[in-house]
Amino acid sequence: MKRWGIAIAGIVLQIVLGSVYAWSVFRIPLTTKFHWTIPQVTLIFTICIVMLGISSFLGGLWLKQVGPRVVAVTGAFLYGLGTILASASGDRLWWLYLSYGVMGGIGLGFAYIVPIAVLLKWFPDRRGLMTGVAVGGFGIGALITAPSATWLIQNVGVLPTFAYLGIAYMVLGLATAWFMQNPADGWLPAGWAPTARETSERSVKDYTLGDALRTWQWWALWFILFLNTSAGISVISQESPIFQELAKVTVIVAAGMVGVASIGNAAGRVFWAWISDSISRRYTFIIIFLMQVVLFWVLPATTSAPVLTALAFIILLCYGGGFGTMPAFTADYFGSTNVGSIYGLILTAWGAASAFGPILVGVMRQTTGSYRDGFHILAGVALLSTLLPIMIRPPARLT
Description:
Elements lengths: L1 H16 L6 H11 L3 H29 L1 H19 L6 H30 L4 H30 L1 H20 L18 H6 L7 H5 L2 H32 L3 H29 L1 H18 L6 H30 L4 H8 L1 H7 L2 H12 L3 H14 L1 H5 L8
């Protein structure tokens, strides 16, 4: 039963961290109050996700030295503190870049990698499903935070909202981070042994980070995550303004639409991870990419609020599926012992994607006055992306 308690704590911690996906509700209030441009405000979110990717790798290395609890507690503290300090930015954009972007992003990365690495060790019998459930919590974060932040912004102002949210993040984050710990070396669930299919899809030895980096498969996994993330995160970064512009809804209605769509982010992490246990990780990503070709092509021409919400929901279902499936994909190919550092480095694709998708869409919207061209480019990218999961095969086994 101990592993289930740790799993619950990991899920709650991920819900706290997933609040970052509600960033779009801050975009219009910040641009309106301080007269900043869309790309300037979007860059705050971009910096945060870039730092998340970098610090996930560093956190994965660090947790091998000090254990998961120290890394998770440090991450929760930094994310909460960075959000609190953002409330003191005034009209200084650079302060938001440093507080919420850099400090908050570092905290996110440290804390994010821990539940994934820990649960891969506690649940070798449910590798895809449990990592999907863990990161599914990350997707739920926006569902809770988007309407809460919108209400706070309207009642106390945009900058004080950061302070209220930061305190909540710190308290809940520290409380759940304390439960993060690894099982004893060599631990396996009682009576469990991998099936023949699982054995054929998994490495017989654990790769070190250096071993993994010498395989082309590690780089293919990095690009698969980068390409899938670029698509979904471009919508997340602009979600509330997209809804307001295309469907002509109010900010309150748009916040509710963000919350509903974010359920797709959470559900996709569990759904696609579960599916991948049955049809393989490769075929899962092929389906995800092909769906996004259609979704991004029709999205900018949609004006119905219900249809737009449904499209965003499915896009985020695919986006979340990448994060739900990739940890198990990585552990299948390279083993679970060093997955913290190996998958942590793959997560730099998340940061790189946040510097591509959101900025592409933000700049295209700023220069053309429309989301159409940016989203159609992403549809083409998704089509080309299907080639990687079609080609990838397990790496040659170490002897």
